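Our working data are protein records whose layout never changes between entries. An example says more than a description, so a record of this kind follows.
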Amino acid sequence: MITETIFSNMLMLAAFLCTLATGFILIFAIVIMPGIGTLTDRDFLRAFQVIDRVIQNSQPLFILVWVGSVAALLIATFLGFGQLEGVSRILIIVAAVVYIFGMQLPTVAINIPLNNRVQTLNFDTLDEPSAAAERSHFEDRWNRWNVIRTTFAGFASVLLLIVVRLM
């Protein structure tokens, strides 16, 4: 009984936090990047640098949602082995795999290294051709992978909500 309550609470927390993290990267895909995408190369890179710096400075609510989504999902998946069976067990496993490998892994392997490169730019010495080259190296790849990770994260969130509904 207690394990069931812990599991159901952890599952709801995982669904909530994964959905919040999905919403965060979705906002980048549909609002932030299109918005700053209209800026000049230098202004685009500078705007992204400033936005990303807020995140990289360990903004506590962001860290809670981002890291918490992974922790809650892994705990819920582990506990789900004892609480779920059949389709529900498969769905939570698929949700965890999709979220970790489709959203978190590309974030760490692709988006964060691109972000870190933008963080190293010095706008006092960056001329326009260099800014254009940096933007060209960054923008399309970052946006493409952000759409990919948003899609996977959204799919994982839907799967988690289905598991919650099936309980």
